[in-house]
Amino acid sequence: MDSPQQRVEADLKAALKAGDKERLSTLRLLLTEVKNERIRRGAEVDAEAFAAVVRRAIKKCQEAAESYRGGGRPEQAAKEEREVAVLEGYLPKQASEAEIRAAVEAIAAAEGLAGPQAMGPLMKAALARLGAGADGKTVSRIAREVLAARAG
Predict the structure, then answer these.
(1) Which of 13, 42, 53, 65 sits at a 20 to 30 Å CA gap from 26?
(2) DSSP string, 67-111
(3) Reduced to 3 states, what is the DSSP secondary structure of residue 138?
């Protein structure tokens, strides 16, 4: 199976041949981020680190789109949103909210976690179990809800 970086490189070549300048630009940026991560780590980027790099790139694009929208530049905001759509194609299949909730509830019950003070241990266990298939923001929100329900 190809590494995530090899997949991006192959898609980059395809975008170049197709003349898709916007996709080409987005993939070049992603490839640069992956290479920078490899340099930071001093080792190849595994699937989980690749997903983290993609999530960071998506977050940057979303923040830029918000800024452009706030500055009255909807065409630039739309461009950033199209970049997000391209980048999301490189994330592993994401767990549904129901799957995340089930995992978080199972962990909380198994470890007897309740109340806001248990947030750290619950998040650590949940993210370890769900891995790159879950967005940390969603896991955090659900974990807060579960811990509040178990505390009260």
Answers:
(1) 42
(2) HHHHTT-HHHHHHHHHHHHHHHTTSPPPPPHHHHHHHHHHHHHHH
(3) helix
Contacts with 145 (C-beta within 8 Å, 6 or more apart), sequence order: none
Q: What range does the domain containing 15 cover?
A: 4-88
Separation of alpha carbons 152 and 146, rounded Å: 10
Answer for the pair 122, 108: CB distance below 8 angstroms, yes or no.
yes
Q: Residue 133 burial (CB < 10 Å; 0-12/13-18/19+)?
A: middle
Give me the half-sphere count of Cα atoms (radius 13 Å) on the Cβ side of residue 31.
Answer: 15
Among candidate residues 83, 76, 91, the one with its CA nearest the CA of residue 20:
83
What total number of domains does the chain contain? Answer: 2
DSSP code for 134: S
Looking at the structure, do residues 46 and 84 belong to the same domain, yes or no? yes
Query: d(Cα 59, Cα 74) in Å, to the nearest integer?
Result: 18
What is the enclosing helix (H) or strand (E) of 63? helix 47-70
pLDDT in tens, 46-95: 888 898 899 899 999 999 999 999 999 999 999 999 999 999 998 888 88
